Amino acid sequence: xxxxxxxxxxxxxxxxxxxxxxxxxxxxxxxxxxxxxxxxxxxxxxxxxxxxxxxxxxxxxxxxxxxxxxxxxxxxxxxxxxxxxxxxxxxxxxxxxxxxxxxxxxxxxxxxxxxxxxxxxxxxxxxxxxxxxxxxxxxxxxxxxxxxxxxxxxxxxxxxxxxxxxxxxxxxxxxxxxxxxxxxxxxxxxxxxxxxxxxxxxxxxxxxxxxxxxxxxxxxxxxxxxxxxxxxxxxxxxxxxxxxxxxxxxxxxxxxxxxxxxxxxxxxxxxxxxxxxxxxxxxxxxxxxxxxxxxxxxxxxxxxxxxxxxxxxxxxxxxxxxxxxxxxxxxxxxxxxxxxxxxxxxxxxxxxxxxxxxxxxxxxxxxxxxxxxxxxxxxxxxxxxxxxxxxxxxxxxxxxxxxxxxxxxxxxxxxxxxxxxxxxxxxxxxxxxxxxxxxxxxxxxxxxxxxxxxxxxxxxxxxxxxxxxxxxxxxxxxxxxxxxxxxxxxxxxxxxxxxxxxxxxxxxxxxxxxxxxxxxx
Length: 521
Description:
Blueprint: H1 18-42, H2 45-56, E1 61-62, H3 64-76, H4 78-81, H5 99-107, H6 110-117, E2 123-124, E3 137-143, H7 159-174, E4 180-184, E5 188-190, H8 195-200, H9 205-208, H10 219-228, E6 234-240, H11 254-269, E7 276-292, E8 298-314, H12 315-323, E9 339-345, E10 356-358, E11 368-371, H13 373-378, E12 385-390, E13 398-404, H14 413-416, E14 422-425, E15 431-437, E16 446-452, E17 460-467, H15 473-478, E18 479-480, E19 491-492, H16 494-505, E20 512-520
Parallel strand pairs: 1-2, 3-4, 3-6, 12-20, 18-19
Antiparallel strand pairs: 4-5, 6-8, 7-8, 7-9, 10-13, 11-12, 13-16, 14-17, 15-16, 17-20
Helix pairs in contact: 2-3, 10-11, 11-16
């Protein structure tokens, strides 16, 4: 029969009547088409996500590492998943993972529902809120490229090696014999040294330069590897000059190279921005040898050069580093040899306004005011409203001291006390005239002086916000787009590289860290 698709069927169908043969062939064809459709459906991003969730539930628990892996998959497949009605809700308008929707999605998984029905409700450590009692475990990644070797030259003052020794010994004191040492350039390799062997090495790059290719550094692959393998109690530290050089971009202009670096870093950090944080510390050390510029041009240089420690950990681990008394010595980064400055990258999805209270009787006050009657009656812990506000008799000015708890802010101390970083709005035309370290009730750490020469009258509201501005001055001042003549301060493309990280952590261009509100009458 012309056009008829013939299928060879078992059991001798040729002996059956012709109508039966036609029906059998149609059934076989239908089964074949359905099978192909079923197989292609199994390969969809949604099906793969469901399979990964089911696999993660095999032990009746989704731990933080598995949750991170699931988030990364959703981020990587976001374009496809957003087109499927079943999974479109998992992606926010700005391309991030909607945590609440994702948790609900997991709970609708067939394996999850079956376990619940059997009385074995799975444990999901999805938020990463659980705090471990285990000590932090250090992983140190030393960049071994040609531009790093002169930092530990025999003629140097040893500041570079001394800094690494300090970091390693301080962590080893808290968690003995658990530190891991790696070498990074075009790939990540085990350094192959114990801590005592590391300390005894006259030049640590003697061993490091035998690992991988030292002609360039693949920051995209390195950061991706570090983020992927930093979980639980891990704290990873990348030691690098952060000079971006990629052989695949040879021939491109400096600006195009930096634009590419910025975009690549955004892509790398995007899947981890809600679960991991990074502290970048700038330090200086002696450098004596060949400096390789962004395009691999060589120049002999002797003198100080900047380099960086990039501390990466899950948010819970970083919180412990900053707040646990066990790490009090370790987190004094400003005491490391050659310390210059630092910047913290993080996204606090549960950020709240810090505790603050007007200091009604503080000696720094000018003018006259008292606590509102409503707050007195309610016995409120904090003073946010003033009444009977009158200017100073002598010069008609008004100064309102405010105590605030900034202990949760991962910002440099000099930025928190920089009055120009604060903005006041309202009819009084207040300005923040000073920010002072302060130890007061309810854990307050700083005192803000809110000052105006021409106070307003009547009922009004004033707000004070701490600006979120990137780059900080030190990154802007360190950055250069021409490193033909290296110096003691500059790093080629630092701003572009870290701007890419900032975009991942602040995708909506948030302009403030917090806003305080006070009422006056």
